[in-house]
């Protein structure tokens, strides 16, 4: 009887006992339709344990019965419910306006997207983390309307990035903001450490950056720990890089046929040394690294409590170039720690470190130009072969000798240390103060060696020095960059009934400086060569270096900016939204008269769906009309301190027996210079429909650069002045469809398209033009337009020549290009040069699709441009040297009616080498940018071995490109005034990757 009573009491007390003990709490998370939600976060607040739901929405978590479980998932409302002893079901409701409730990072703070009037696109870090690119911006090519990313295949080089066109002569890159610090590049960031990237395009969001805002802004936020979660993540991938498209060049027999024909056309006899050169060499294949490897390894540790959130990430990226002996290695680490000292005081630090061994880069242009009849190596004499003396030998070194004979002779290293320290204080309800000190310290150094070796000359049977270099020499350089920033910001947030206000006021100071030294030294003329050993590659390479040959140089500058800024975000009942911002920048670099300049913007939006007359409609889940206007700034110029010219060497004078050099100003001083300003406005709308499954956004933008900072060179007089105007305008469209068929199957599709019309309205005075190779800056044409003659065909006979307008450009004959008489004066002169191509595309676009089925995921991305031209600045037509031929030259003119485009083989007069549409190619292309297949292992199975998640995937990048150009790639970046020129140098690789991601 006593045992029975004890048993009965135990049963009564068991629930109370269990509620105080940690146990396995089980449950399922579902959506409003009852379907299980995979990947939802479940956190036990008191026990500080966490888990994620499996693919059926089920979860098991160690917690106490009765304690609060916080369950969340992106796009759904967070639920907080007590844990129960019995299996529980939790329903997460859809957020009525998911996009509008999304929090985005803006200048000097964050805001809900619903409270903004501008165009800000948020890219989640996971979209770049598993892509095989060292620079994270490369991975969002085609993802954001209005963002142009032109990649380069060279390891360690940054892409050409432009937002909504080219606004200036001197700078195209956007401003990067990494955890608050302003920067000009993000090469030091590990893509795996990125939480999000925000692309800011409109005046409403850019004016707060003042004199740096004209080119757009990309804000990078690195990962931070989340409360109640402790995770260790490992990711690793290996990849193989290959060349997808190789230019079509003639083989040995084709070359001999064309070259002999060319010699005859030029009045010479056929080439007499073919018995010495009987090879059939594909030089691209010879120097190509046809199995270039890539390795990416990352580890991160994250631990978060209510008081302290700590994140540590480290990464290693190593890849080989597409040419032999190119090796790039990058080490990165990231630390973020935030400590909540009291309810009103929070402090934190952030640190990004980067150390890279930069590759010794080459290019493929010499391998395209080199004649195929030469063998790379002469095994009989153990020497590399020189190219034939009459066929490029004086202009082109043996490509293999350049790659192998000088391999690993340039040792360069870059290091960056970027950090911030901040303290945040809640002064009273709604008001907080944040003080931050940020710094970026960059260090670059390198040393190199030029060896001396002989090569074999086939025509004479003798040897000669490679590249004519008789003395070994050493080069050495070092440069340091320091950037420091101080921010002091007050933020006030308050709601008054239906009125919601966020106000920002602050002061910031930014200072940067640069110093560099470099030098070279040669060996003694009759002394021993400097050893081919990196231990001796220093300027004081005693006893080999000749001190009398030592040359040195240095460069240095610094500048500072102080700024006062303010912003107001206001909305009434979420319906009527107003944004206004102001910044006053004072710069040490501009003239004293205009040292301080003001920049501002105002934007408004109307959420139509919140009106009463929209309450009963079922079409729109959200409809928001928006617009903004503002004045932005551009502080970049061709030189630092343009209003304070340096001195340069002028005429010399004789005083007695001494010759004394005179020094004059490099250009005339203009004390009234000011920074360029960009007047920008946009208007558009955002909508969601069909239960937020379909989302669409469109925007019209217009940007006009005023007071263009122009360097005027009139020969006898040179100076900077503010004169000129550039216009960029267009439309942007983006849309997406997201749907869930059932628990096992979800899919989404998205796309974007952006048009661009760029036009230089004026440059200094009427008729003033600036030339940069085949490119021109002139009023009435897009910036960087190609300039030359329009080709109407090929002269077929002397009768054709007589019947055509006579040319004053040089000697020509049947088979030469026929240029158009553009101005109609009856003759072909230099006045007939005109715009022959536009390097800016009419529009850029991208579209993608994603599918998840059970544990499998599949994604595919396309990206392209349309309507631009590229200038083929390589191959026949670009040089007087005797180089290999493009196979297109097999269709050359060799008699009346044989060709009306490819001219005869004759370089004697140079007539066909004038800049013309003969060198213009279509730059439009469509690329299968990325395709990925992944598999997530079953969560229940992984729990048995204490693993939260395990994913494997295969990825292919740049798998196929549909294009019409003759070079490696239709992508070609460059400077603001000279871009879109295909120099034939380096391809964009196809990268096949196998990856693994494990979370503990």
Automatic annotation (TrEMBL):
PROSITE patterns: TONB_DEPENDENT_REC_3 (PS52016). Gene3D superfamilies: Carboxypeptidase-like, regulatory domain (2.60.40.1120), TonB-dependent receptor, beta-barrel domain (2.40.170.20), TonB-dependent receptor, plug domain (2.170.130.10). Residues 440-959 form the TonB-dependent receptor-like beta-barrel domain. The keyword RNA-binding does not apply. It is a multi-pass membrane protein. It is found in: Cell outer membrane. Keywords: Cell outer membrane, Membrane, Signal, TonB box, Transmembrane, Transmembrane beta strand, Transport. The keyword Signal applies. Residues 1-24 form the signal peptide. InterPro entries: Beta-barrel_TonB, Beta-barrel_TonB_sf, CarboxyPept-like_regulatory, Plug_dom, Plug_dom_sf, TonB-dep_OMP_SusC/RagA, TonB-dep_OMP_SusC/RagA_CS, TonB-dep_rcpt-like. Residues 112-217 form the TonB-dependent receptor plug domain. Belongs to the TonB-dependent receptor family. NCBIfam families: OMP_RagA_SusC, SusC_RagA_signa. This is SusC/RagA family TonB-linked outer membrane protein. It comes from Flavobacterium pokkalii.
């Amino acid at each position: 009887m006593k045992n029975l009573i004890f048993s009965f009491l135990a049963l009564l007390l068991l629930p109370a006992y269990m509620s105080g003990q940690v146990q396995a709490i089980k449950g399922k998370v579902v959506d409003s339709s009852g379907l299980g939600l995979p990947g939802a976060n479940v956190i036990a607040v008191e026990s500080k344990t966490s888990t994620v739901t499996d693919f059926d929405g089920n979860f098991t978590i160690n917690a106490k019965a009765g304690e609060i479980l916080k369950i969340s998932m992106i796009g759904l409302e967070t639920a907080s419910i007590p844990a129960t002893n019995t299996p529980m079901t939790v329903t997460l409701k859809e957020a009525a306006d998911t996009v509008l409730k999304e929090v985005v990072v803006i200048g000097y703070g964050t805001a809900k997207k619903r409270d903004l009037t501008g165009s800000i696109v948020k890219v989640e870090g996971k979209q770049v983390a598993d892509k095989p690119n060292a620079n994270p911006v490369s991975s969002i090519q085609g993802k954001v309307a209005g963002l142009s990313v032109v990649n380069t295949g060279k390891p360690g080089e940054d892409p050409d990035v432009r937002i909504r066109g080219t606004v200036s002569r001197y700078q195209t890159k956007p401003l990067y903001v990494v955890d608050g610090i302003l920067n000009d590049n993000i090469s030091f960031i590990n893509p795996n450490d990125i939480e999000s990237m925000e692309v800011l395009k409109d005046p409403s969001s850019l004016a707060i950056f003042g004199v740096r805002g004209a080119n757009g802004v990309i804000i990078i936020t690195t990962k931070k720990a989340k409360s109640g979660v402790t995770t260790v993540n490992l990711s690793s991938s290996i990849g193989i890089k290959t060349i997808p498209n190789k230019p079509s060049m003639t083989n040995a027999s084709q070359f001999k046929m064309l070259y002999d024909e060319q010699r005859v056309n030029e009045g010479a006899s056929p080439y007499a040394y073919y018995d010495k050169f009987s090879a059939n060499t594909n030089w691209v294949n010879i120097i190509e690294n046809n199995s270039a490897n890539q390795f990416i390894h990352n580890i991160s540790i994250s631990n978060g409590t209510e008081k302290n959130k700590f994140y540590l990430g480290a990464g290693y990226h190593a890849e080989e170039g597409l040419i032999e002996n190119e090796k790039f290695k990058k080490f990165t680490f990231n630390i973020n720690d935030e400590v909540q000292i009291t309810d009103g005081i929070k402090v934190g630090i952030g640190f990004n470190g980067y150390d890279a061994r930069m590759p010794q880069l080459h290019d493929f242009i010499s391998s395209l130009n080199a004649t195929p009849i030469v063998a790379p190596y002469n095994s009989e004499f153990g020497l590399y072969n020189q190219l034939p003396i009459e066929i490029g030998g004086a202009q082109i070194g043996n490509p293999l000798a350049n790659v192998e004979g000088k391999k690993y002779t340039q040792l360069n290293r870059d290091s960056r240390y970027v950090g911030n320290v901040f303290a945040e204080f809640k002064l009273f309800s709604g008001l907080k103060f944040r003080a931050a000190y940020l710094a970026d310290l960059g260090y670059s150094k390198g040393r190199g060696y030029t060896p001396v070796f002989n090569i074999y000359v086939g025509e004479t049977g003798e040897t000669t020095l490679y590249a004519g270099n008789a003395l070994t020499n050493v080069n050495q350089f070092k440069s340091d960059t320091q950037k420091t920033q101080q921010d002091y910001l007050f933020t006030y947030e308050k709601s008054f009934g239906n009125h919601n206000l966020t106000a920002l006021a602050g002061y910031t100071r930014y200072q940067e400086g640069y110093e560099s030294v470099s030098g070279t030294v040669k060996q003694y003329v009759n002394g021993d060569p400097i050893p081919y050993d990196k231990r001796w590659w220093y300027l004081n390479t005693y006893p080999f270096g000749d001190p009398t040959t030592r040359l040195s140089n240095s460069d240095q500058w610094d500048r500072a900016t102080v700024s006062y800024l303010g912003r107001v975000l206001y909305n009434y009942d979420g319906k009527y939204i107003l944004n206004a911002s102001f910044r006053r920048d004072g710069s040490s670099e501009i003239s004293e008269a205009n040292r301080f300049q003001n920049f501002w913007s105002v934007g408004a939006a109307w959420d139509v769906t919140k009106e009463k007359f929209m309450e009963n409609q079922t079409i729109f889940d959200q409809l928001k009309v928006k617009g903004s206007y503002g004045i932005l700034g551009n502080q970049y110029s061709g030189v630092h301190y343009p209003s304070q010219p340096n001195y340069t060497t002028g005429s010399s004078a004789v005083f007695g027996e001494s010759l004394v050099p005179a020094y004059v100003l490099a250009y005339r001083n203009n004390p009234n210079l000011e920074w360029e300003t960009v007047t920008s406005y946009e208007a558009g709308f955002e909508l969601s429909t069909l239960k937020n499954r379909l989302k669409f956004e469109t925007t019209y933008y217009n940007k006009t650069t005023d007071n263009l900072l122009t360097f005027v060179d009139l020969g006898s007089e040179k100076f900077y002045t503010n004169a000129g105007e550039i216009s960029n305008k267009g439309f942007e469209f983006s849309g997406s469809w997201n749907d869930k068929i059932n628990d096992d199957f979800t899919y989404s599709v998205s796309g974007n398209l952006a048009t661009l019309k760029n036009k230089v309205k004026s440059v200094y005075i009427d008729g003033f033009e600036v030339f940069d190779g085949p490119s021109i800056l002139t009023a009435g044409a897009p910036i960087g337009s190609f300039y030359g003659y329009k080709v109407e065909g090929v002269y077929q006979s002397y009768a054709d020549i007589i019947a055509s307008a006579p040319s004053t450009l040089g000697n020509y004959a049947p088979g030469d290009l026929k240029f158009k008489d553009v101005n109609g004066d009856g003759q072909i002169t230099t006045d007939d040069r005109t715009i022959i191509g536009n390097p800016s595309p009419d529009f850029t676009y991208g579209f993608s699709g994603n599918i998840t089925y059970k544990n499998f995921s599949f994604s595919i991305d396309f990206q392209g441009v349309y309507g631009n031209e590229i200038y083929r600045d390589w191959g026949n037509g670009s040089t007087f040297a005797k180089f290999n031929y493009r196979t297109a030259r097999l269709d050359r003119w060799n008699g009346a009616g044989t060709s009306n485009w490819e001219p005869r083989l004759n370089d004697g007069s140079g007539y066909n080498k004038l800049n013309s549409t003969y060198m213009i190619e279509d730059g439009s292309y469509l690329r299968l940018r990325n395709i990925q297949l992944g598999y997530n292992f079953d969560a229940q199975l992984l729990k048995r071995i204490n693993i939260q998640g395990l994913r494997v995937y295969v990825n292919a990048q740049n798998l196929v490109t549909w294009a019409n150009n003759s070079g490696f790639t239709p992508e070609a970046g460059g400077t603001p005034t000279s871009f879109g020129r295909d120099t034939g140098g380096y391809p964009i690789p196809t990268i096949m990757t196998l990856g693994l991601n494990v979370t503990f």
